[in-house]
Specification:
With 257 residues, this protein is mostly beta strands. It is 14% helix and 45% strand. The protein is built from four helices and 15 strands. It has a 15-stranded mixed sheet that branches. Pfam families: DUF4292.
Length: 257
């Protein structure tokens, strides 16, 4: 399995949960502090975790690979800790992710997928679940930073956190803003396979006194191949009563990942 096959599917995950608000404003943060220890930094980061019930938005997705580039706008909804949902125009492509399953269907070719997180876990080389996916799409660290001991350093004005004992299958680094204490980049490398996955949070916004992603860039590299997805969030509303309709049409062919 390669990142080339992974990116169109990871899009279904990454494109479901980033947040915004009609009254939001882009923020950069003040009062830079580059003197925190790793424990202090992790504690400050934990204070910034988002807190809402539901979210609904229009999401612009730009995807490029080599000379090919395309953009789409989709509807997406989220019930925190329970459901991530996306629907393209007229429900042609629809996806629903819960703690128990990952599913999507495509009316353009009459196919569907229904399964668990096993495929994505194999690609990342670590156990993946709903909570980890939600953490990524909300701008939170992929792994709970309180579960390990980290070294901290400063590089180009950002904090860099890395585990004192890196994992055997991959190396991971977290970059954090020194004033907002939010993750600005997550980088996962599988050196032996010449793979690198990087999630950059290029801008944050303030929504109801919370700091959330505004512009996100996902880069996947394998050897000489590079694929990029950018996300922009518009017309977002929070804490409304939402529905998450999803029913695989009869006669569709199941695809194996």
């Amino acid at each position: 399995m390669t990142y080339k096959h992974y990116i169109p599917l990871v899009s279904l995950l990454f494109f479901l949960g980033f947040t915004g608000c009609k009254s939001s404003k882009t923020i950069t943060g003040d009062n830079t502090n580059l003197k925190l220890s790793a424990k202090q930094l992790i504690r400050e980061n934990a204070k910034t975790s988002p807190n809402f019930k539901t979210l609904q938005s229009k999401l612009k997705i730009t995807y490029s690979e080599g000379e090919k580039k395309q953009s789409h706008t989709v509807n997406y909804r989220m019930e925190k800790d329970k459901v991530l949902w996306m629907s393209a125009t007229f429900g042609i492509i629809r996806a629903k992710i819960t703690p128990e399953s990952v599913a999507f269907y495509n009316k353009l070719d009459n196919t569907y997928f229904e399964g668990d997180f096993q495929y994505f876990s194999k690609l990342l080389g670590t156990e993946l679940d709903f909570n980890k996916v939600q953490n990524i799409i909300l701008g939170e660290a992929l792994f709970n930073l309180k579960d390990e001991t980290y070294n901290v350093s400063v590089h180009q004005g950002n904090y860099v956190l890395q585990p004192q004992n890196q994992r055997e299958l991959f190396e991971i680094f977290f970059l954090l803003n020194p004033s907002l204490y939010k993750v600005t980049s997550q980088q996962l490398s599988q050196i032996a396979q010449q793979r690198h996955l990087q999630i950059d949070y290029l801008a944050h916004q303030e929504i109801d006194n919370q700091v959330l992603p505004e512009h996100v860039k996902v880069i996947a590299v394998e050897g000489a191949s590079e694929m990029i997805a950018e996300l922009e969030f518009k017309s977002v509303t929070l804490n409304e009563d939402l529905r998450f309709p999803f029913k695989i049409p009869s006669g569709f062919k199941k695809v194996e990942l």
